[in-house]
Amino acid sequence: MKILVLNCGSSSVKYKLIDMPQGSVLAEGGVEKLGLPDSFLKLKLPNGEKVVLEKNMPEHTVAVGFILETLRSEKYGCIKDYNEIEAVGHRLVHGGSKYANSVEIDVNVITTLQECTDLAPAHNPANIKGIEAIKAILPNIRQVGVFDTAFHQTMPDYAYMSTLPYEMYEKHGVRRYGFHGTSHRYVSQRACEILNLDINKVNIITAHIGNGASIAAIKQGKVIDVSLGMSTVSGLMMGTRCGDVDPGALTFVMEKENMTLAQLSEMINKKSGVLGVSGVSSDMRDIEGAIKAGNPRAILAMKMYDYRIKKYIGSYAAALGGVDVIVFTGGVGENQWTTREIACEGLEFMGVKIDKSVNTNMRGEEKVISSSDSRVKVIVVPTDEEFLIAKDTMEILG
């Protein structure tokens, strides 16, 4: 069953064509700079070579159409007819509290996405455009939505409720929703497969660490807490996002700097975090270079970044009543051994011991990095959200 997986952003469309159930990736790539005159499609060939195809793509329907044309093209294609694509699975960001599972897309799903636009203004409108683009080009194909927020809907009310006046929840839905749910679900399940554990009998902490980052506490297969809240700004320090910060500091800075709400939003979303503290970059490769050169602010940013990961792991171990498995994933979690090591240092009291020789020689692969005598298993699992979206799509459509 060939399933096209789409991840539609405001200025990008990522895709993978996956042959299920074996999970073979037949094609992958993405449109970048969507809506700009210099937009292009970058695709990865089976031999690993990357190809860039330039085309003016003013909106999502043109972009999706060009992706489909490329999939069927003589030079870069892997299908002869669109009918070979049996379904489309979409990464959908925000389903509010309505969806706890993936669903076949119908008018009710579209309505929910529209209702949740205020909660994800940069993502939900783009998700809707992706669905509509497929509908316009392939009107008879079935589509499935996999929500980033769905996996976190098992949180108890005392974990997801805000401490603001209760009417803010009743009126505006202010609460903790959490994101990266598809990634947390995939890596927790995959870690248990590798370790031969029953996910319904163990406590897991999953750390999705990248430019955007979140940590989830999973008790016997169900999320009980997650670091991201109503928005994608809270929790861990991120590439450009501030993470947890004193709200009083925000009103103080607004007043001192005569900021508008839009300027404040710009600061906490795009000018803070690793970039804001270091003054160098939001890219960890640049930060590592600056650290080697002795840049004190880059050193400080890295210490803050790693410390907050450790702090969340410790607090979630307490919330879970003990932890059996810690999983690292995401661009940093999979590739930066120093962050994994520092985040686990000092956690020996709760049974965490890293095998440094294994950890330092490992990048981007499935690997147990805890020592043989560690009570808590620590493992790196590269995330594969697209595979899980394809799997959900296949199962829902039978």
Helix content: 25-40%
Estimated structural class: alpha/beta
Query: How many whole angstroms does the radius of gyration measure?
Result: 21 Å
Count of helical regions: 15
Mean pLDDT, to the nearest integer, reads 95
Rough shape? Answer: globular
CATH architecture of the largest domain: 2-Layer Sandwich
The CATH class assignment of the largest domain is Alpha Beta
Domain module tally: 2
Helix and strand run: EEEEEHEEHHEHHHEEEHHHHHEHHHEEH
Largest sheet: 8 strands, mixed
Number of strands: 14
Portion in strands: 15-25%
The separation of the N and C termini measures: 10 Å
CATH superfamily of the largest domain: ATPase, nucleotide binding domain
Strand order in the largest sheet: 5-4-3-2-1-6-8-7
CATH topology of the largest domain: Nucleotidyltransferase, domain 5
Could you list the spans in which at least 5 consecutive residues all have pLDDT below 50? none
Assembly level: single chain
What are the salient characteristics of this protein?
14 strands; 2 domains; six-stranded mixed beta sheet; Nucleotidyltransferase, domain 5; 39% helix; alpha/beta
